[in-house]
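Example record

The entry below shows one chain as it appears in the dataset: sequence first, then structure tokens.
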Amino acid sequence: MTNIILLMLLSTAGPSAVIAVIGYAGILALSRNPSSAPKIQLTLILGFVFAEAIAIIALHLFHSEFFFDRQFVKKRLKF
């Protein structure tokens, strides 16, 4: 059980760190050049979306690997 919790933690810690770094970089960029806010905001939003997509894919792969019923597949596909 602790292995499952550890894997779930690792699969979400990476994208969380990426979001933190993107947010920090965006704040620095806006403080240096406030007139380019629309371009920076678009880049930030895209970065957040891609980081969240990585987290969702990692959790989906984790879920399908550990909680998928292999016996059900064998019965249905007649292996």
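Notes for this example: Residues 25 and 44 are 9 Å apart (CA to CA). The chain has a mean pLDDT of 81.
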